[in-house]
Amino acid sequence: MNIREDLERRERETLSPFAAFSTETLGRLHEDDVCDIRLDYQRDRDRILHSKSFRRLKDKTQVFLTPEGDHYRTRLTHTLEVAQNARTIARALRLNEELTEAIALGHDLGHTPFGHAGERALSDICPFGFSHSEQSVRTVEIIEKAGKGLNLTFEVRDGIKNHQTSGRPQTLEGKIVRFSDKIAYMHHDMDDAVRAGILKESDIPREISDVAGKTTGERLDFFIHDLVSESYGQNDIKLSESVSDIMQKLREFMFERVYQNPDAKSEEKKAEGMMERLYEYYFKNITEIPIDIRKLLGLSISSEQIVCDYLSAMTDRFAIAQYEEIFVPKSWIAL
Predict the structure, then answer these.
(1) Angstrom distance (rounded) from CA 182 to CA 163
(2) Is position 113 within any domain?
């Protein structure tokens, strides 16, 4: 029995004609062996799940820097919530769940420590800028496995690269993740903001809550249902015009009350300053970067890029430890 062929047959029989079929992938960067029991997008999902960059997400900030409490989201739990939303949508639309999940699990692999504060710092100080979506692609193509990369399919890399609002994914599965990322972060960030005492449910404007729901769960269900209803049987992923307007109002509310809230963001300037000083230090002392990262210099990659690779891969905790090791004086002890 050829299990792979059986799985390919099931895809053709059960998925929508608009789905990305594994047999039609545009392929990998490098020739690879074929697995006899897994299709290509499942292999990509597995490679991401077992990668070091995926494990590090558990110690990277989502919105609140080093919060006091065990129930605030991290970059890892954000990623898992994006993946769950995306799989729900993909299954309802009979699209490729394995491709959708692979993109979702990989979309933030290149994100900096300290959330978007770390990203802003690197973008400001690095002469060619910094984007976490581009860095996520770089992570899976080059940085993982000491420069060998994960050798993922084109469709997964395309979805990772284009997961932000401005992106234009080439598959419907990539478009699902783009919406799922936005839906997930707005809703779980609101939940965390309520937990932190920055928001109350009653603060949400009536024009949003009367239509989308009175709780985080109701609103999440509202947006996902509309996305599925509007996209079912279509060669596109979209919200209805009225619901898209509600989502934009919710996003504006979140930026005003949470993402730009001086209490929630009071420590971000410190985080940005820390990242900038670490960048300057390692740029001047490039040999202190681990050898497996510095090996990339042999590929004619700039020192600026190597420093960005190293810093963006750090967890919050490791970045703070490195900063203290380099810049904070220690007590002198006589020998």
Answers:
(1) 9
(2) yes
The 8-class DSSP code of residue 165 comes to T
Burial of 99 per CB tally in 10 Å (0-12, 13-18, 19+): buried
SS3 89: helix
Task: Tally Cβ neighbours within 10 Å of residue 248.
Answer: 11
CA 54/CA 194 separation, integer angstroms: 28
Q: Tell me the residue range of the domain where 252 lies.
A: 38-324
Q: Please tell me the distance from the alpha carbon of residue 312 to that of residue 158, in angstroms, as a whole number.
A: 20
Q: Tell me whether residue 1 is in a domain.
A: no
What is the C-alpha separation between 309 and 327, in angstroms, rounded?
A: 21
Distance CA 103, CA 133 (A): 11
Structural domains in the chain (count): 1
**Span 36-60, pLDDT tens digits:** 999 999 999 999 999 999 999 999 9
Cα–Cα distance measured from residue 296 to residue 254, given in angstroms and rounded to the nearest whole number: 40
Residue percentage of the chain with pLDDT more than 70: 97
The three-point CA angle 291-297-303 to 5° equals: 100
Record the pTM. Answer: 0.95
